[in-house]
Amino acid sequence: MVTTSRRVERHENEPDSVGLNPLFARPGEATELPKFRLPAGESLPETAYQIVHDEAMLDGNARLNLATFVGTWMDEHAQRLYLEAADKNMIDKDEYPQTAAVETRCWTMLADLWHAPDPEHTIGTSTIGSSEACMLGGLALKRRWQHARRAAGKSTERPNLVMSSAVQVCWEKFCNYFDVEPRYVPISWDHKVLDGYELEKYVDENTIGVVAILGVTYTGMYEPVEKIAQALDRIQETTGLDVPIHVDGASGAMIAPFLQPDLRWDFAVDRVASISTSGHKYGLVYPGVGWVVWRSADALPDDLVFKVSYLGGEMPTFALNFSRPGAQVLLQYYMFLRLGIEGYTRVQGASRDVALYLSGEIAKMPAFELWNDGSDIPVFAWRLKPDHTKNWNLYHLSDRLRMKGWLVPAYPMPADLPDVTVQRVVVRNGLSHDLASAFLADLREEVAYLDALTGPMPAEAHHPGFHH
Fold first, then answer.
1. Does domain 80-336 have CATH number 3.40.640.10?
2. What's the average model confidence in pLDDT over 62-89?
3. CA distances for 153 relative to 43, 146, 203, 204, 356, angstroms
4. Window from 68-72, 112-116, 140-144, 207-211 with minimum mean pLDDT
5. What one-character-per-residue DSSP string does 43-60 give?
6. CA 211, CA 351: separation in Å to the nearest integer?
7. Residue 428, number of CB atoms within 10 A of its CB
8. N or C, which end of the chain has less CB nearby within 10 Å?
């Protein structure tokens, strides 16, 4: 999948070159290197390393980043394995057949974990992340709908996909890129997630599927997959429309099996056709791997699958990317072997304990009101009480916390709740009770500082600090 980013604007007085520290410059080397052009000559590896190292040092401390879901810590054995496998290309099944075999083992394990009827005879794939996995799930929904419509002699124009207004941006991209009309069911204080309420207003004969999110990006709350399926059952009873569900389990699909084993959200719900997740979120792997699994092989239309030569036979492949790292797939297998069900339960439970501790303490602060407490995935959000102060807002608090090294985003809720601004904390493996206590101490200190203001803070140029 091709990704682009907006060019970072240069500061008005930013120099065009990097000046070298005399301690690292060697006799005969240039003392300055251009920032925006390829240098004319070579540099010693030690010099180039030091320049890049110093540039990267200016990034935030990943362990203090409470904004991202993406993994920021793995143990030393995983790091060794990462280096050993850095040259493996996941798409090259012929050159790296054992890595391809490990990939199959991983998604088969997930199919079993998610109660697929016949895990060994279903189909799945690794991806570069959960966004690509979602797009593959969406493409399968669209193609299945097209086949059914053509078989019935009906038009395949104007497909639509139904989802919450709090959906992650990858679904907006899917609809944009693949010509599908997005139909957003608004969230509200009464319906904080997509829960099946008034779903019949959004579903029609052109609906390719409904997306259920197991861990909404904005707040971490689960959407009740079984209730959504029951609403679709009622719709089918009255209209005959058989609408499948894709579960976007970017985070929750690696939490619910361990912390909420009795929750019915996966292939145990008959209407669930496919499930996606991030290996690099609560799968506990460094960035660069996601997974998608279908209920059965026939849930993925065969005309979406390409066949490539593999050990004298054929290997099916379905992806938006071509060349991509194989190392993260091996890291995922390492984590599955390293932790197992017992280990994942313990690690995810520790994260949830920290989330509940943090949310409980924040709920006691007079300034705040919780949106949720982190009892689904270890993620929770809060808002500033409307009558607490006129002198500061959550954007100011976010800026103050950043000065202490903590990245805690403030952002508006979706368009249906435009006047609600929240802050969110994501608790990942590595955020210990000690670090959580240090964060609380800094949070209380900054709130006290802001509460002591005798006049309002400036409010210009505040904007949401995350899209992830």
1. yes
2. 93
3. 66, 10, 20, 17, 54
4. 68-72
5. --HHHHHHHHHHHHHTS-
6. 26
7. 25
8. C
Q: Which residue type sits at 192?
A: K
* Separation between Cα atoms, residue 225 and residue 249, nearest integer Å: 11
DSSP 187-243: P-SS-SS--STTGGGT--TTEEEEEEEBS-TTT-PBP-HHHHHHHHHHHHHHH----
**Residue length, the chain?**
468
So what's the pLDDT on residue 207? 98
User: In whole angstroms, how far apart are CA 63 and each of 60, 66, 377?
Assistant: 9, 8, 19
Domain covering 342-451 assigned CATH 3.90.1150.160 in the classification: yes
Return the CA Rg of the chain: 24
This prediction has a pTM of: 0.92
| Token output for 52 | 């890049």
Kind and range of the H or E run holding 354? helix 327-363
CA distance 88 to 91: 9
User: Measured between alpha carbons, how far is 129 from 22 in angstroms, rounded to an integer?
Assistant: 42
Task: Report residue 243 as tokens.
Answer: 């609408």
Is pLDDT above 70 for 334?
A: yes
**pLDDT score for 238:** 98
Q: CB-side exposure of 65: number of CA atoms within 13 Å?
A: 15
Domains of the chain: which residue ranges? 17-58, 80-336, 342-451
Q: How far apart are CA 220 and CA 251, in angstroms?
A: 9
The candidate with the shortest Cα–Cα distance to 121, out of 281, 388, 299, 340, is 299
pLDDT attached to residue 322 = 83
Confirm if 326 and 90 have CB atoms less than 8 A apart: yes
What's the CA gap between 59 and 80, in Å, rounded? Answer: 24
Q: Could you give the CA distance from residue 58 to residue 78 in angstroms, rounded to a whole number?
A: 25
